[in-house]
Automatic annotation (TrEMBL):
PROSITE patterns: SAM_MT_UBIE, UBIE_1
Single GO biological process annotation from the record: methylation
Protein name from the UniProt record: Demethylmenaquinone methyltransferase
Alphabetic keyword roster: Menaquinone biosynthesis, Methyltransferase, S-adenosyl-L-methionine, Transferase
Pfam families: Ubie_methyltran
Gene: ubiE_2
InterPro entries noted in UniProt: SAM-dependent_MTases_sf (IPR029063), UbiE/COQ5_MeTrFase (IPR004033), UbiE/COQ5_MeTrFase_CS (IPR023576)
Tree of life domain: Bacteria
Naturally occurring in which organism (per UniProt): Rubripirellula tenax
Protein family membership: Belongs to the class I-like SAM-binding methyltransferase superfamily. MenG/UbiE family.
Pathway assignment: Quinol/quinone metabolism; menaquinone biosynthesis; menaquinol from 1,4-dihydroxy-2-naphthoate: step 2/2
GO function terms (MF aspect): demethylmenaquinone methyltransferase activity
Known function: Methyltransferase required for the conversion of demethylmenaquinol (DMKH2) to menaquinol (MKH2).
EC number in record: 2.1.1.163
């Protein structure tokens, strides 16, 4: 969430540059500060958002779960705490520096010790079709260069009957909050980010720009439907500052009748 861009910010009308090298380098730079900035800039609400996402996951024994764009691994760790030991949890990301932090967070003797973190581009996931019962992404899809390709890949590796979940920033629509949020995002957040991470101010302008240009609400749900998912629904959190999107891959999960 505390995404930062190393190059100049886009002017209105420009598309944010989300090429793989740029996004990977951006996260390499901010990796050491990512967790503390996340918690600070969201006033710790990011933890609540991830907990709500995990609460909504339908987890059955014996089938693995994939968390894509896992970053420093917080969602994968929360999932591992909810899943029983027969469920392998995998976290994938294309930024080595973020994954190194995720690996260091695994706690011997705790469910997190069972998570495998591996380097992979979400647009070409190195997994067979129909592998995972749940495929998740938190605050990551917005950064993937080709959103639809990312969604198609998540859907491809999901088991028929399995669940696909996206947690992402969205734009609150409530009058007053919309303006306050816009002001915080555009003016306060970049300054705090610069101060704490001692980075270029423009680096912290990536977040509002990328959120502003990313589909939310029904528009995002429509993209998930277009990727082949059914029963797509979305739940705004914290007055719509973030939203959980859920969809199901058509078919029947092998263990559904057994759980
Ligand atoms: C804002 S962080 C989110 C991290 C984590 N999911 C969380 O909830 O805090 C976005 C992550 O997406 C990763 N990412 C962006 N584009 C990617 C891609 N095409 N393939 C794999 N990872 C990608 C970045 O490296 C970064 O770690």
């Amino acid at each position: 969430m505390t995404d930062a861009a190393p190059t100049k910010s886009a002017t209105p009308g420009d598309r944010v540059d989300k090429s793989n090298p740029r996004v990977r380098e951006m996260f390499r730079q901010i990796a050491p500060h990512y967790d503390k900035m996340n918690h600070l800039l969201s006033l710790n609400v990011d933890k609540y958002w991830r907990s709500q996402a995990v609460r909504r996951l339908r987890i059955f024994p014996n089938h693995p779960i994939l968390d894509t764009c896992t970053g420093t691994g917080d969602l994968a760790i929360a999932i591992s705490a909810k899943a029983d030991p027969t469920v392998d949890v995998v976290g994938s990301d294309f930024c080595h520096a973020m994954l190194e932090i995720a690996r260091d967070k695994r706690d011997p003797g705790k469910p997190s010790s069972r998570i495998s973190f591996l380097e992979a581009d979400s647009q070409t996931l190195p997994f067979a079709d129909d592998t995972f019962q749940c495929v998740t992404v938190a605050f990551g899809l917005r950064n993937v260069a080709d959103t639809d390709r990312g969604l198609l890949e998540m859907t491809r590796v999901c088991l028929p009957g399995g669940q696909l979940m996206v947690l992402e920033f969205s734009q609150p629509r409530m009058i007053g909050l919309k303006q306050a949020y816009g002001f915080y995002f555009r003016n306060v957040l970049p300054r705090i980010g610069q101060w704490f991470a001692r980075n270029d101010k423009s680096a912290y302008e990536y977040l509002p720009e990328s959120v502003g240009q990313f589909p939310d609400g029904q528009a995002m749900a429509d993209r998930m439907t277009a990727a082949g998912l059914i029963d797509v629904r979305f739940t705004p959190l914290t007055f719509g500052v973030a939203t959980i999107y859920e969809g199901t891959k058509p078919g029947i999960l092998p263990s559904q009748g057994l759980a």
